[in-house]
Amino acid sequence: MSMEDYDFLFKIVLIGNAGVGKTCLVRRFTQGLFPPGQGATIGVDFMIKTVEINGEKVKLQIWDTAGQERFRSITQSYYRSANALILTYDITCEESFRCLPEWLREIEQYASNKVITVLVGNKIDLVEKREVSKQRAEEFSEAQNMYYLETSAKESDNVEKLFLDLACRLIREA
Ligand code: GDP
Ligand code: MG
């Protein structure tokens, strides 16, 4: 068995308003770092991380939106073949939460009907500036049949859990 081999390959796509922390979540998970300053945009379309789950090698191809979210130019090609979507908002930004229905409409329009969507409330380290209660987010995610998790890319809270739980679910439903 060569180093290139894997048992599963999944494409995971991050979506959500600009500034909610998508790039930081990807970099925290794939590189173990929190980028300083505003320069968080990565110059590649996706990053790869291979994890091992119950002895199985799971290769995760994680797609970031690198600024296109501002221009609403994310279209079918971006969602096509995504096995999972991480729909992210910022718990300190009400506006990013209020935009979620718009993102859900895009998912419905462009993504596969088998896609697994996880709702993520990021920046939980800024809980004193919270604008969206956990209860409100949980009610919303339950109504939409989505799994919900609060994370901090900065403090590394729940970031591993987010991707590993998602990989486990993807294997179960593969
Ligand atoms: P994107 O536009 O969704 O990719 O968001 P970025 O990853 O570029 O992050 C936008 C801003 O939020 C940057 O200034 C980050 O440093 C900051 N940020 C991202 N995640 C967190 C977090 O978990 N906690 C805090 N306090 N700031 C964060
Ligand atoms: Mg970004």
From TrEMBL:
A GO MF annotation of the entry reads: G protein activity
One GO cellular component this record assigns the protein to is:
autolysosome membrane
Assigned keywords, A-Z: Cytoplasm, Cytoplasmic vesicle, Golgi apparatus, GTP-binding, Hydrolase, Lipoprotein, Lysosome, Magnesium, Membrane, Metal-binding, Methylation, Nucleotide-binding, Prenylation
Q: Which CDD domains match?
A: Rab30
Query: Can you say where in the cell this protein is located?
Result: Autolysosome membrane; Cytoplasmic vesicle, Autophagosome membrane; Golgi apparatus, cis-Golgi network membrane; Golgi apparatus, trans-Golgi network membrane
- Please cite one Gene Ontology biological process associated with this protein: Rab protein signal transduction
The top EC class is hydrolase
Q: What is its EC number?
A: 3.6.5.2
Q: Write out the catalysed reaction.
A: GTP + H2O = GDP + phosphate + H(+)
Q: Does the keyword Hydrolase apply?
A: yes
Keyword Magnesium on this protein?
yes
Report the superkingdom from the record.
Eukaryota
Homology family: Belongs to the small GTPase superfamily. Rab family.
Q: What does this protein do?
A: The small GTPases Rab are key regulators of intracellular membrane trafficking, from the formation of transport vesicles to their fusion with membranes. Rabs cycle between an inactive GDP-bound form and an active GTP-bound form that is able to recruit to membranes different sets of downstream effectors directly responsible for vesicle formation, movement, tethering and fusion. RAB30 is required for maintaining the structural integrity of the Golgi apparatus, possibly by mediating interactions with cytoplasmic scaffolding proteins.
**What protein is this chain from?**
Ras-related protein Rab-30
